[in-house]
Design goal:
The protein has 332 residues and is α/β, with parallel strands linked by helices. Among the domains are: 39-145, no CATH class; 234-285; 290-323. Helices cover 62% and strands 15% of the residues. The chain has helices at residues 2-30, 141-165, 168-232, 235-286, 290-297, 299-321, 323-326, and strands spanning 39-46, 57-60, 63-73, 80-87, 96-102, 109-115, 133-137. The termini are far apart.
Amino acid sequence: MKRGMRRNDVVVGLVVVLGIVVIVAGTIWLQGMRLGQEQREVQARFTEIGQLLPGNEVKLRGVPIGRVDDIALEQDGRAVIITLSIQGEVPLPEDPVVLLSPESFFGDWQAEILPRRNYPFYNYTESPDPSVLPGYSLPDISRLTAVADRIAQNMAVLSDRVQTAFTEETALNIREAIENISQVSEELTGLVSGQQRVFQQVADNLEETTEALGAAAETVQRAFAQVESAIGEDRLVEIVQNVERSTAQVDSLATELLTMSRDLKAAAASADTTFAAVGSIASRIERGEGTIGRLLGDTMLYYGLRESTIELQALLRDIRENPRRYITIRVF
């Protein structure tokens, strides 16, 4: 009897120990802890976390690497800090962010670590602490349903307004507008056809102008060829030498003309001085000053000179007629 009781005690003890082991192993499995692996903590910042709970999985590229360890509000209540326990040997991507999203339709959520470049347009909640990763929470199904309900209400309001505005008269106006648009389209088609003819004429004129320009270009090319030929035959050098000689002659002529101009200026100055002196003398003679002036102004002197001239002429005639009266020649 005692042996049977002892066996029962041993069995009960084994069952209890086995139950404790199962509970501990289940707890470790539920928390995602692996024995013999080093764990590290990573924190992320969110404005809201949806239905996330401690113990939810943390994934990287879809592979579970840890669990959500702790969820806490900041002191000012403006954001939520989530502590993630992940495997220590797993490297994080470049510029990592944490994205919260529903894992299934049964309300389970997950935290996924991924590079920011995968979803660059999300409004991540940044942290002043560089060690805290920025995070963003996707809306769950209930929120999507609420948003869809609000969109449906807005569509109903819009439908009512469209039905109110779209009456039979509005339909007739739209029909008339369509007919007017069709008429305008036909007129535009005719205008485009007319402009097409004009453009064709312009194109023809441009073609003729192009041909004329081509002929002018050929003429210029021939002229350049002649110039090049002249350069090759050294005729251009001869022309340049002739031009240089002509330029030198023109320079010499200009120098001589400049000298003559200076001489003419000096002669003109001397002539001005001479004319001034002559004018002064003439003025004095006219006023009767000096011998000539008195001679011209004295009438008696004129008559005296006239009589003396007459007597002198008579004397000269008498000398020619009777030279012995005045000249005596003696020969010894």
